[in-house]
Amino acid sequence: MISLLILPLIVEIVYSTLKSFLFNDTPIWSFEVTIFLYGTFFMLGAAYCHMKKAHVAVEALAPYLSVKWRRRFAVFSEAVVLFVVLTLLVVSIPTAWRSTMMLERSTHQTPFNPHVWWYRWIIPISCLLLSYQSIRDMVGIITGRGTDKEREDALEEERSDVK
After folding, report:
1. Which residues form the Tripartite ATP-independent periplasmic transporters DctQ component domain (predicted)?
2. DSSP of 118-157, one letter per residue?
3. d(Cα 65, Cα 71) in Å, to the nearest integer?
4. d(Cα 77, Cα 134) in Å, to the nearest integer?
5. For the chain, what are the domain ranges?
6. Residue 27 in contact with residue 105, Cβ under 8 Å?
7. Of residues 30 and 85, which shows the higher confidence score?
8. Has residue 81 got a pLDDT over 70?
């Protein structure tokens, strides 16, 4: 669902490029709209990827660790993610609130000059989603429920120990 946010971005870029190339006239709203669409796609996509476990993870150490140490490493990784996300959340909420109170407009000095206060809330919303997912994953790892992949790895290791 989040990946569908890329479609309006593609349409906007193609339209802007064609209009610029064919008519030598770029839409005045093109620059800001591209920023809004890509930023939203990126931030909400990060939260969605974390939920689906589709993010890039470094698996250099995991094969050499026991299940117990893999779980500890996974908790540490989630703690790092949580720290970064909560830091961003603490910084972004006051910024978004100030922006909303003054009905901030774009600082890019374009004739379009859109309101950006609503866009400032994308970061806190995404950080809330990421922190919720990170806490959920951490609790799952600690309680042993973990992810499907972790359960499969644990079962595989138990089978190899039995042999």
Report:
1. 14-142
2. TGGGHHHHHHHHHHHHHHHHHHHHHHT---HHHHHHHHHH
3. 9
4. 9
5. 2-162
6. no
7. 85
8. yes
Question: Are the CB atoms for 145 and 58 separated by under 8 Å?
Answer: no
**Mean pLDDT for the chain?**
84
For residue 101, is pLDDT > 60? yes
**How far is the CA of 88 from the CAs of 15, 61, 151, in angstroms?**
34, 28, 31
CB 8 within 8 A of CB 37: yes
Rounded Cα distance between 136 and 50, Å, is 11
Q: Please work out, in degrees rounded to the nearest 5, the angle formed at the alpha carbon of residue 125 by the alpha carbons of 124 and 131.
A: 85
Residues 6+ apart with CB under 8 A from 15: 27
* Six-digit token string for 14: 């193609």
Question: Sign of dihedral through CA atoms 100, 104, 106, 108?
Answer: negative
Q: How far is CA 58 from the centre of its chain?
A: 17
Three-state SS at 9: helix
pTM of the model: 0.74
In the prediction, which pLDDT does 150 show? 55
Identity of the residue numbered 34: T
Distance CA 133, CA 44 (A): 12
Sign, CA dihedral 108-114-116-119, equals negative
